[in-house]
Amino acid sequence: MSFAENLATVQGRIAVACERARRDPAEVTLVAVSKNHPAESVAAAVALGVTLFGENRVQEAKAKIPASPAKARWHFIGHLQSNKSRDAAALFEMIESVDSLALAAELQKQAEKQAKTLKILVEVNVAGESSKFGWNPAQLLAELAALNAHSRLELHGLMTVAPYATDPEKVRPVFRKLRELRDRCADALGAPLPVLSMGMSGDLEVAIEEGATIVRVGTALFGPRPRLVREDAAD
Ligand SMILES: *Cc1c(COP(=O)(O)O)cnc(C)c1O
């Protein structure tokens, strides 16, 4: 399958899910996850009108982003180590995966130095998997005010990576819990948190039905990922 065919299929899946959920497809943003794929793949996607890309490693992005069309915009979606915050703040318009107060403080410092504001989402480990990064929901509620106090960070909403499941219905409760947690956080802050980043190639329909405003899709667009680097190594 060509990228163009894959893109049409994914856009069709999004449209059908929106129709079923009685949502406007304009409410759902597609982040094309280009990790492990080269800048040439990004350029091909940009030529077809895709402008938003997701990467999970700073090292890889640092080489790929300058080699990609300037039109491309970038979200960071992986675990970010504090010592990579400077590059991340320079390269990405949004960090979707802020998973600790310490990281938020470091991003604040770097954004200040770079005289910019950074959009952020907080990553939540809804299912409490020991293999995953992200806030525990109770801890997020406790630390939300401190997180939101960072003047250079614009908190837009929540993100989660659901557990792997062959049947996407199995992860519906995870997406629903993220939405409910978002509502509680917005109440606590007294401000809307409009963004819910959830749903990937295998489960984007269910995520959209549960309120996703960003779906992060890699394999269904670009095909299987060449294993350029160890998948499990933290960046
Ligand atoms: C790789 C990745 C995706 C995309 O996964 P696919 O199953 O290939 O669509 C989405 N989100 C995150 C955080 C990822 O690391």
Total separate domains: 1
Please work out how many helical segments DSSP would assign.
9
Radius of gyration based on Cα positions: 17 Å
Strand percent estimate: 15-25%
CATH class: Alpha Beta
Order of helices and strands: HEHEHEHEHEHEHEHEH
Ions, cofactors and other bound molecules:
pyridoxal-5'-phosphate
Low-confidence stretches: none
Shape: globular
- Look at the helices and sheets and give the structural class: alpha/beta
The assigned CATH architecture is Alpha-Beta Barrel
Strand sequence of the main sheet, in spatial order? Answer: 7-6-5-4-3-2-1-8
Query: Separation of termini?
Result: 31 Å
Give a quick account of the main beta sheet: strands, pairing sense, barrel closure.
8 strands, parallel
Helix content: 40-55%
What name does CATH use for the topology? TIM Barrel
Structural features, described:
By secondary structure, this protein is of the alpha/beta class. The protein has a single domain (3-222), classed as TIM Barrel (Alpha-Beta Barrel), CATH 3.20.20.10. Helices cover 41% and strands 16% of the residues. It is built from nine helices and eight strands. The protein has helices at residues 3-20, 39-47, 58-67, 85-91, 101-113, 137-148, 172-189, 204-209, 219-222, and strands spanning 29-33, 52-55, 73-76, 94-98, 118-123, 153-159, 195-197, 214-217. The chain has an eight-stranded parallel sheet. The longest helix has 18 residues, at 3-20. It is globular, with a radius of gyration of 17 Å. The mean pLDDT is 95. The structure holds pyridoxal-5'-phosphate (PLP). Residues 33, 35, 56, 77-78, 161, 200-202, 216-220 line the site of pyridoxal-5'-phosphate.
